[in-house]
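ESCALATION

Customer reports they have been waiting on this structure for their group meeting. Please prioritize. Original submission:
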Amino acid sequence: MSGLTKLVGHKILDYPTHLILNALTPTPPKRRLGDIAEQTAMEGGARPMIFGRVRPIGGNIIQLQAPQKRMIKEKVSGGKGGSKKKKQKVEHVFRTYAIGICEGPVSAVIRVWRNNKLVYDARGNAWGANNNHVFLNRFRLHLGTWQQFPDPTLEAIWGAGNVPAYRGTCYMVAVDEDLTELGGAVPIWLFEVERAEYFDIESDLYPLAEQEHAQSGAKLETALLKSTLQRANDQNSVSSGALLESGELKAVLQRTESSEQVNSGAALDGGELKSILIKQNIEAEQVSSSAALDGGALQTVLIKPELFIEAAKSSAALETGALL
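Update from on-call: job pushed to the front of the queue and completed.
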């Protein structure tokens, strides 16, 4: 039997199987206009992809805690006759749950409605300034970044490692919401979400002369960056970086001339480091030193090396005191 005959025979035998599978597997329904505004509790449901500002989005319930019943003391009416209100224990139902909104990351959740009542408005108006804190005390919004971590409230209920981070999904977490008025049922939520991409374009602040490559970087929380790069001549590579939480960064690089490679550093826990490299009168081939400063003052990292230095290395580890 030739190969072509075998192929045709297999196709004929597979055709009835194909018809049976099609009959047993229903065709999934197509999305209709307005479906995005319906809240669902469907496993494996598609997430809406949004661009710009979109509303309303119904979302999909992705985490749901069983009803938690608690007895709470409340003042109730004494009945007929105008008697005073009395304190009585009343059963309340609380639940923690999460609702997936759309595919992230998004820029912001603009407005939120609970059972068609506005409960959150981030458009910067007076209503939001007066009422948003009530919503944010019980509800937490995750914007769906690729760095977000699992929600701590969900982990406290289901256990650490049992709750996904839902990275790439914008979702809301309701923390211990009182659902007594709804009999423990989850309310209907609607969201208005905005997604806007942006980019920052920056250029170097300080021009450098006679250098092939020069870099400088600093991150300051509360500090003053006075000088990042000073004069540097005849160098192939000069780089500097600083990370400051507080204090003052005065000088990263000082003047160096006619050197191929110059590095400097020290490990200082306390005290004052005045000089790492001292004057040498031999021809310079390579001068290196290293430093890491935790506290104190680093006054001179690099000094002007003179000619005829063959090799000079210096390092210091100082706990307290002064290195002269």
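Sent to customer with the following note: The two ends are 96 Å apart (CA to CA).
Escalation resolved.
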